[in-house]
Amino acid sequence: MNGEVKMAKAIAGIIINEVETEPLSGYVIDFLTTSTRESPFLDFKKTIDLRKSSAFPETAKDIFAFSNYGGGWILLGWEEHKKNQFVPVGLSEDFEFEPANLQTKFDSYSIEPLAFDYTEFRKDFKDNFPKAKDDFKQKINSVSDRFGVIYVPPSSKLLIPSKKGEYEVNGKKKCVFYPNDVFYRRGTQSIRPSSTEKALIEKRLKKENYRLSLLSGEPDEVEETIYSNLFEIKQMPVSVYYGKVKDYDNVSIKALLKQEKVFPEWYFKFKYWSGNLVTFENLSDNTSPYSKLVVPGTIKEEPLSEWIKDSDKFRVVKEILNREIRHHAMRKGIWLEDKKYKLYYPAEEVTRKEKWKSRYAASNKTVATKFYVPKLKRYLYWHVAFYADVLNFNDKFYLKILPSFIISEDGKKILSDPVIGTLITSLSYNKYNSLYLNNVLFWIHQIGEGNDIKIGDYMTISKSPVDLKASMGILYDLPSNEFRLEIPEDEEGDTIEDG
Asked: Could you give phi then psi for residue 433, rounded to 5 degrees?
């Protein structure tokens, strides 16, 4: 019996972070007001004007879109500070809003009536944004501590206009929508849906009590592609070559390789093992620079498949694979931090940008920039970086790209101490998660110049990440037609604070 009651409540209410609540409860409002940006289920408005001559059709379009999407909220008393960043300023004390009037006004445009929920609340937001800039802080609660929130429920049928949505702007009529137009939420916009989005609406409508994952606590019934940070090594070396190493020290080896025009000559594509030099380079080929490092007559060739079976030899193989990839990346102008083997671009100027082509568009990415550190009272550079590592699963090898950040003193010399660690943590918190896939694809693009990565004639790494097709996903996470992997960078020279 208790299970039946709980299920009934869950269908009627909303579950956020595993807590069941009503659409306009204090818990939900607290959840919504932690955001300063619009999303597919959330809109901010300074006020709503229901007068005949007002721009209400713009609000009506948002309501149509929210309802067809699966529900959402409109917060009143927020002012746009800059593009898609809103500050809670409050509603004026003479603002009057009657939910019944909103109901009547919207129903006059809709082919089906829609039942709204509305409530008002008072809240002081002044302590909610301790790290906000001064111009943002000055606007907080600048009008009042009074706010409103409208809950737009999901429609049980496709919700479309019954007439034109017109209003006047500077003496000219503007038509926001026409009869039978369909609207849907895509990102922060209320737009006409694509064929894929129309199919999502139809799927949602088939379930009488369907709610978005945000509202139900359950996955949405949408197919989703989940990308990993693994790239399959499609072609592996066939053979491992080894021979007794000549009596050279590392300085002599570097000098010889430099003479042979190997770059970078100081990072070797081989590993010492039991007095031998082991590599994937064909040591029997006199044109290979590495052949000059071993004693003639001691060279042996063995199948890679046999080396992989031996645990000690496997570790040698794995290390050489990693060395091959790092060496290849450095030939593309990427530098290596030699303590944790992080790869990065150095900076000669205040900011360095690199061109690349994402899945959707050509773009410029900031890979290093100068910033001020208040705690150290000095300028440093942050660099996007990555760690490359070869993994083995089920007899297949993969390259793992792990994005990261590093801090340098002058755009080149890498720093590492407890304070620098704190800065990297701060950068990771602010940038790492939101840019994760972006950075993974950026680095694989740079190593392969947009193509599969080919190392010699013995190794090829796919440019496409390993992915998983999931039958259940999160609708809010799905990329739209407007989706870009290249997320706009922060302003150059931003101050990074600890914490």
From this structure: -65, -45
C-alpha 3/C-alpha 323 separation (Å) is 58
Q: Which of 323, 273, 325 is nearest to 302 (CA)?
A: 273
Contact 401, 444 (CB under 8 A): yes
Number of structural domains (the chain) is: 2
Q: Return the number of other C-beta atoms located less than 10 Å from residue 323's C-beta.
A: 19
Provide the residue count of the chain.
499
Q: Are residues 58 and 163 in the same domain?
A: yes
Structure tokens at 363: 């773009």
Determine, yes or no, domain membership for 113: yes
Contacts (Cβ under 8 Å, ≥6 apart) of 328: 447, 453, 455
Closest CA to 309 of 321, 301, 300, 317: 317
Consecutive H or E run containing 104: helix 99-107
Domain check: are 112 and 182 in the same one?
yes
**How far apart are alpha carbons 133 and 147 in whole angstroms?**
22
Pairing status of strand 378-393 against strand 362-373:
antiparallel
Question: Quick check: is 498 in a domain?
Answer: no
Residue pLDDT tens, the chain, 499 long: 343 333 333 334 555 554 456 888 888 898 899 889 998 899 999 999 988 889 999 999 999 999 999 889 999 999 999 888 999 999 998 998 888 899 999 999 999 998 888 999 999 999 888 878 888 999 999 999 999 999 998 888 899 999 999 999 888 999 999 999 999 998 889 999 998 888 888 888 876 545 555 555 566 666 667 788 999 999 999 999 999 999 999 999 999 999 999 999 999 999 999 999 999 999 999 999 999 999 999 999 999 999 999 999 999 999 999 999 999 999 999 999 988 899 999 999 999 999 998 765 678 889 999 988 887 888 999 999 999 999 998 889 999 999 888 899 999 998 877 667 766 666 654 544 556 778 899 999 999 999 999 999 999 999 999 988 776 665 554 443 333 333 333 333 344 333 3
Residues 378 and 261 in one domain: yes
User: Domain range spanning residue 36?
Assistant: 2-218
Tell me whether the omega of the peptide bond preceding residue 264 falls within 30 degrees of 0, making it cis. Answer: yes
286 with 406, same domain: the answer is: yes
Residue at a domain's end among 218, 248, 266: 218
Q: Are residues 136 and 266 in the same domain?
A: no
Helices (H) and strands (E) in the chain, counts: 12, 27
317: in domain: yes
Residues 124 and 170 in one domain: yes
Residue 140 lies in a domain: yes
- Token pair for 378: 């000095």
- Do 44 and 108 belong to one domain? yes
